[in-house]
């Protein structure tokens, strides 16, 4: 059997498993999740040992420390995995929920019911925490999952999938609910992306080049979780105390996340009052500033922000700063350079706020709050598989509901169309 | 300017128009639609004359009569266009609707609001009725539209777009809300499909090869409206009087539609009682039957149904018939050969009905009714841009709501993340 046949076999089994999974009860799914916690607890040592093999290989090959940090699993990371499984157990099951109903004049009763999507393909980099988190969200929402992770995490992923399969088996769910593709190496990605007869949705998790490869090669619908080039705009009518506090938080509270602010826009009328103290706060927190010409007249000695800077997700203690003539220019800048993720306005002027919230074309738009809140947990939606920067199907935090679709269920008593 | 530059210019203008369109009121959009009716009334003769040019060319080139029938516009077709505009005026505007809200313990007020998608590309064959219908649905839902229609309808499409643009102009909506791409010919399709910076969604309207081209080449999300290989399954516990009536309706009431039944599945225990009279009814209505071996023992003298038949959307007075051993076999057949469109069970047994409705993986599943009801109007949802056979974003009839997305709007008073 060559690698293509192996993959076809795997995705076929995943499709069959998805038909069974779509029928199981919430209790059965939660039983699996509880069993999975038990199995992970039992296998702590083994997981860390397998992970160490992956880590050792990468150390030998001189991978960056950031790469190895994302790859490495220690006791704390295992605690976090278990915590995330517990969170998913606590979430309500969206499957079977009636989201709309009507009775027609001819007596037809029409209902729209949430159902699982089917088979979901996750294409991701060498981050073994995704292996568990993506799988449990897919299964809780009744979908089976095809995992294609980075090769550097192969040993870790194999043991994690093995543990999930044994938890599935012991709780009588189909073992093919979770599948990992290792055959075919990198070539396999493009091949998987053509298998629309078996896979219903692809979610890429990773950097821009991975997402680009997926988008350009997939015949299957893709929901993208792109970078977050997020903005905070400080309007001329801002409460400056609030602005200093919120902008600082949006930048420094956790700079490596997609919802951290990367660009600060400031209305020219308040720039001279607002920026000096902001710069002082940034300096205290070791934030590198890069500014437009006008900004550099107020904050001297900082680097110039180039056209590239406006497009950049730093994921670091760096911020670009631009002074704008009015709110229209701020909106235009955000819609042009942003990634339609999360953007905020700080203002006491209701009209300006409403204009900003309406005209910014982003998944989450904020008035007087930090962009850092874009998160399934913070929104009260529970765990998420990512933050969608797409507009189709799911926008913003993508949780269990967004991992389902719906069907129309129609009850009649012999109606025919005239 | 070469054809690629021309297209870029058009899609850029469409994107700009979409920002304006997303802000206009329902009244403004309806004013445009009313003006459009007026303009079409004024230009009846001109439209028919331009259309005649297209028809004449196709007649010379010996296109099929079915093709020319779809292309041709007469007074009746214009009446139908006007009727469809009136229907869309009457529909509620989904834009701005609050679909969810919550207040978090930290005081953040989070709302999920319906907003337009942006720019929608419609790629279709030589059916000028689509030019109007797709455009008015997109505009009423606040989207601008890029039309790429079959070249045989070029003169007709140009006059229709011209009329729409003048109605837009006279009611002060952006004229670039509707754009037709004629530059580049067939090559343009593949080029348009890469322009994800400007176009947010592609809806192909046409046959399988058109949809295949779109799916295999698009970097932009696509919602497919595939063929309808729909089934009616007559269970062993069916009320036979109802079954005869419903099956006949599902096949013959309008065989050329995607929701007509193409395959009849019959439980073996009632086949001998049910099929003879069914065959008589089909013969009375000139329906060609093709059967499995078991069927042909009961209905003699009919053609054998081949493996290909089970996959075929006849769109004609032809039906394939298969006798199955049990409901499981019926479900398996439908999930394997169907297009996940519309499928029905006829039974008095509630348990069998529930099993069928739950396990059939289709957009619309019916108990004791004709598959012919899958339609936005019949569901009480209003006009539709098509019947989605996809599971992502829209499933089944795709109307105004499905032409929108949502954004999260968050109001705070200085909240920061701890």
Give keywords.
globular, 418 residues, 21% strand, Aldehyde Dehydrogenase, Chain A, domain 1, 7-stranded parallel sheet, alpha/beta, 4-stranded parallel sheet, homodimer, Aldehyde Dehydrogenase, Chain A, domain 2, 44% helix
What does this structure look like?
Two copies of one chain form a homodimer. With 418 residues, the first copy, chain A, is of the alpha/beta class. Chain A has two domains: 3-224 and 395-411, Aldehyde Dehydrogenase, Chain A, domain 1; 230-373, Aldehyde Dehydrogenase, Chain A, domain 2, CATH 3.40.309.10. In chain A, 44% of the residues lie in helices and 21% in strands. Chain A contains 15 helices and 16 strands. Chain A has helices spanning 3-21, 26-42, 44-60, 65-71, 75-90, 128-140, 154-170, 187-192, 208-217, 240-252, 268-284, 293-298, 307-310, 327-337, 350-359, and strands at residues 98-103, 109-116, 119-124, 144-148, 178-180, 201-205, 230-234, 261-267, 288-291, 303-304, 318-324, 342-346, 364-369, 386-388, 396-398, 404-415. Chain A has a seven-stranded parallel β-sheet with strand order 10-9-11-8-7-12-13, sandwiched between helices. In chain A, strand 9 (288-291), helix 12 and strand 10 form a beta-alpha-beta unit. In chain A, helix 3 (44-60) runs antiparallel to helix 7 (154-170). The longest helix of chain A is centred in the N-terminal third of the chain and has 19 residues, at 3-21. The first copy, chain A, starts with a helix and ends with a strand. Chains A and B meet through helix 10, helix 15, strand 13 and strand 16 of A and helix 10, helix 15, strand 13 and strand 16 of B. Strand 13 (364-369) of chain A pairs parallel with strand 16 (404-415) of chain B.
